[in-house]
């Protein structure tokens, strides 16, 4: 959910609000790249827009099919950027088509931009007045000599993921016995079949809840007892 700062909200509901500008950030550091800052506009001085002391250089960009819905799957907007001189082609080849890269959209009212953007300064400059939307590049959908189109997804989407990231079993613990996850470092109790032993080499919990209970270590059990309707 996007949070709209109070001064920005007041500006938007004015009879004649100032223009809004979208400032884009592409973070390729996850694939060994850099962070890029760009937008469609120039400032009053004909130079790169400065926001929060950072320069957003002029570069053709537009967003398509962007919207919000409370039903069904989340909207998948497309980000279309210029591929003039093959800039995006080079980045795509070097960074796995940019899949997984973070894209951040800063929507700002011109009234609150840094003072450096104006010939005579800006007494209303406020670096807190922005609405931030975060996306992840899902795929490079189209690449031509003129443009590149990326499909974006919101970071909270969970297509193809497993919660909690591993198979959920009721009475089987995935931890290695006496490992850091297991946490047990006490005396020998039983072997893997539940028979009492005194030899540490034969000691094993059997990777089950009963083994944890015998060692008073059920709190570190790595299974999911609650999904077993027959568990005690």
Please give a structural write-up.
The mean pLDDT is 87. The radius of gyration is 27 Å and the shape is elongated. The protein is mainly beta and 232 residues long. The protein has three helices and nine strands.
Strands, helices and their partners?
Elements: H1 6-12, E1 20-27, E2 35-39, E3 49-51, E4 54-58, E5 61-64, E6 78-82, H2 87-94, E7 102-109, E8 131-143, E9 147-153, H3 209-214
Parallel strand pairs: 2-4
Antiparallel strand pairs: 1-2, 1-7, 3-4, 5-6, 6-9, 7-8, 8-9
Short description:
This protein is mainly beta and about 230 residues long.
- State the total count of DSSP E strands: 9
Taken from the alpha-carbon principal axes, the silhouette is elongated
Number of helices: 3
Largest sheet features: 9 strands, mixed
* Topology pattern, helix = H, strand = E: HEEEEEEHEEEH
**Low-confidence runs:** none
Average pLDDT number: 87
Q: What structural keywords apply?
A:
single chain, 232 residues, mainly beta, 9-stranded mixed beta sheet, elongated
